Amino acid sequence: MKLYYIPAACSLSPHIIIHELGLDVSLIKVDHKTHLTDAGDDYSQVNPLGYVPALELEDGTVLREGAAIVQYLGDLRPELGLVPAHNSLDRYRLQEWLSFLGAEIHKGFIPLLYAALAGRYVETVKPRLEARFAWIDAQLQGRHYLMGERFTVADAYLFALVGWGQAQWLTSYYRADIHFDHLHNLHAWYDRVVARPAVQKALNEEGLL
Length: 209
Hints:
- There is one protein chain.
- By secondary structure, the protein is of the alpha+beta class.
- The chain folds into two domains: 79 residues, Glutaredoxin, CATH 3.40.30; 108 residues, Glutathione S-transferase Yfyf (Class Pi), Chain A, domain 2 (Up-down Bundle), CATH 1.20.1050.
- Helix content is 49%, strand content 6%.
- The chain contains eight helices and four strands; from the N terminus they run βαβββααααααα.
- The chain has a four-stranded mixed sheet with strand order 2-1-3-4.
- Helix 1 runs parallel beside helix 2 and helix 3 packs antiparallel against helix 5.
- It starts with a strand and ends with a helix.
């Protein structure tokens, strides 16, 4: 398999999961400006939409949405519990989290990441995003991870997103003017996740340490 990624982008999420599961996956870096891989290949031939991540399977099939990719990867090693069992309520809770993170957090960051283009629209969306993070902070009360005591693919997704406003390794094109210093549960969660060996390995491979 091949994972196409851009350093510090949301593709960090499946990158982390690959190492959590110990999977043998080739990493293909994509330039965020030229959309060329390190080998000079046109990434639009893999994903015509242009964004990462994309996961190319052994038979050439390509998965192009992060939430689908991390669930697919987790199902390759179900005994590790990064995704709950099919048809369980916890599986639907996981999908609830992934949908929330994609619609309310991931998309909520976009105007902040492109603040110069968004203009005064940032004044509208930033308080909404801050409110969503405050809600996440409340959900983490008494929990180690989003789903309870077990790390799941949802935590990997949130970690990639939180990094755009919190991490010190941010690149210039993934930096948002939003801070979480007052969200103590989220801070404790972040420290717990960033210390995981799989997370450290993914950050190192993307040149973020």
